[in-house]
User: What shape does this take?
Amino acid sequence: MPQATLKIKSNEALVTLSEQYPKTEFNVLGAWPTDGKLRVLVETSTIELPSLKEALSAIPTLTDVEIRHSTAERILFEVSTPTPPPHGAMADSGVVPSFPLRLENGWFVGDITASREQLSAFRDELDAGGIEYHLVQISGIDGAGDALTNRQQEVVELAVEHGYYDSPRRCTLSDLADRLDVNKSVVSRILQRAERYIITAYCSSC
Assistant: This one.
């Protein structure tokens, strides 16, 4: 079954914490609903405990903070937070995330494994909610790599890297053409052929 790696940004309270420490990685080890909120277990390092406690207390939507474990190298804590929109989008589309999720500079990064219909429904939910996300990669699509020529593989990887398939789109066909030093119509034809192979392999793997 296909697996997608996504970067998702929301207005969730932990994002605020992450943006205060943009060079620090937070690992969300688990999350479960309780009392109308979402209870989240988080692991981090490189932050001193007093500074972390101060930062957590300054975010009013983070409540019921509990420090579960603390050493010089690792802090494990739990917090309650309002249910973020991406979590609702996952529930509505039947997608279950694979923990841990990384939280880096305000972006949740993680893998989801789902059917073609579920992944499509999840992206529709994200688009409908105006939730910013980037598709990092899709794997587990048997035969897709073998079907692509080296040139198609190069162009597809460049398109993914520079956000051509993101929502909102971060580059255009013209941008890709400039980077490849070719005409825009050439890039369009290469991507169309590559996408046909990928979509066919994707559907076959579901």
Confidence is low (pLDDT under 50) at residues 141-146. DSSP finds eight helices and eight strands in the chain.
